[in-house]
Design a protein that fits this description.
The protein is an alpha+beta fold and about 180 residues long. The chain has 2 domains: about 80 residues, Outer Surface Protein A, domain 3, CATH 3.90.930.12; about 80 residues, Alpha-Beta Complex (Outer Surface Protein A, domain 3). The chain contains 3 helices and 13 strands, in the order H-E-E-E-E-E-E-H-E-E-E-E-E-E-H-E. Strands 11-12-7-13 form a 4-stranded antiparallel β-sheet, with helices on one face. It has a 3-stranded antiparallel β-sheet with strand order 1-6-5. A hairpin with a 6-residue loop joins strand 9 and strand 10. It starts with a helix and ends in a 13-residue tail after the last strand.
């Protein structure tokens, strides 16, 4: 039995959830998301709750049960409140700015790195060294943040690079004379 799958998902005020067959549509003040459930689980709306159940007692159905419940919960939270991630840029001359639908990063390379901002994602460069990534899809927000961080990962000697705001970089001691 899945501990996560057993819990019903509360639907907050202002969010509409519609289940048609294996397709779930969630609409809230931030936007609309759609998910196609795997065939091993079924979801129903009971009043102000969404209940996810496995269709059979197979191992795969039990594995998918908790995962699908988590995905639906993330969709409901995203439609109601949205998700955000913050990145900090450290290094001399390292900075970022948003130009239209592109994020332009200067990361110490011989050229500027241009990152196209995907649909459904909003990036704000509050300061030249601080980025806020927000959107309604948790997976997409995390993926974009990870891709931007991957352009110049923080190095352990001086800490130069792009890191999550809450991340701490384990520093190494440099060469001795």
């Amino acid at each position: 039995m899945s501990r996560i799958g057993k819990k019903p998902i509360a639907i907050p005020a202002g969010v509409n959830v519609a289940v048609t067959g294996q397709v779930i549509k969630v609409k809230g003040k931030k936007g609309e998301l759609t998910l196609k459930l795997v065939d091993d689980v079924a979801a129903t709306v009971d009043g102000a709750k969404v209940v996810v159940k496995p269709r059979e007692a197979s191992k795969r159905a039990r594995m998918m049960w908790g995962m699908q419940r988590s995905l639906i919960n993330n969709m409901i939270n995203g439609a109601a409140n949205g998700f955000s991630e913050s990145l900090e840029i450290n290094g001399v001359g390292f900075r970022a700015q948003v130009q239209g639908k592109e994020l332009v990063l200067q990361l110490g390379f011989s050229h500027d790195v241009k990152y196209p901002i995907p649909a459904g994602i909003e990036i704000k460069a509050e300061k030249p060294t601080l980025l806020h990534i927000s959107g309604i899809d948790k997976q997409l927000v995390g993926h974009v943040a990870a891709e931007i961080r991957g352009l110049r990962k923080p190095e352990p000697y001086k800490g130069k690079g792009i890191k999550y705001l809450a991340e701490s970089i384990r520093r190494k001691e440099g060469k001795k004379k």
